[in-house]
Amino acid sequence: MIKEHERVVLLKDLSEVGLKKNDVGTVIHIHKGDKAFEVEFMTLEGGTVAIATLQSSDIRPVTKMDITHTRKLTYAI
Questions:
Q1: Model confidence over 10-51: pLDDT tens digits?
Q2: CATH at residue 27
Q3: Is residue 28 part of a domain?
Q4: Residues 6+ apart with CB under 8 A from 68
Q5: Does this model's pTM top 0.85?
Q6: Which pLDDT band, with edges at 50, 70 and 90, does 76 fall under?
Q7: Which region holds residue 76: left if phi is over 0, alpha if psi is between -120 and 50, else beta?
Q8: Does residue 72 sit within a domain?
C-alpha cells in the first residue's frame, strides 16, 4: 500500500512533462480508493520538475534494493 509522503518509482516515460521510467517522486496526495496519486518529481536540489496524477499501475514503492541514480534534465526548470 502506497502512503502519502512515500517515495515511488515511475514505471513509464511521461515525455510530456520530461519524466522518464525509473524517475523517483514523492506522493503528495492520494485520491479516494487509492486508485490515483499526485506525485511530485524534484531535482536533488529541491526544484520541482513536475507534479503528475498517476494511476497505481504507473508507480511502485521504493524498495531497499533500489539505488539513487542521476540524469541531467534536457531543459531548465
A1: 999 999 999 999 999 999 999 998 989 999 999 999 999 999
A2: 2.30.30
A3: yes
A4: 24
A5: yes
A6: low
A7: beta
A8: no
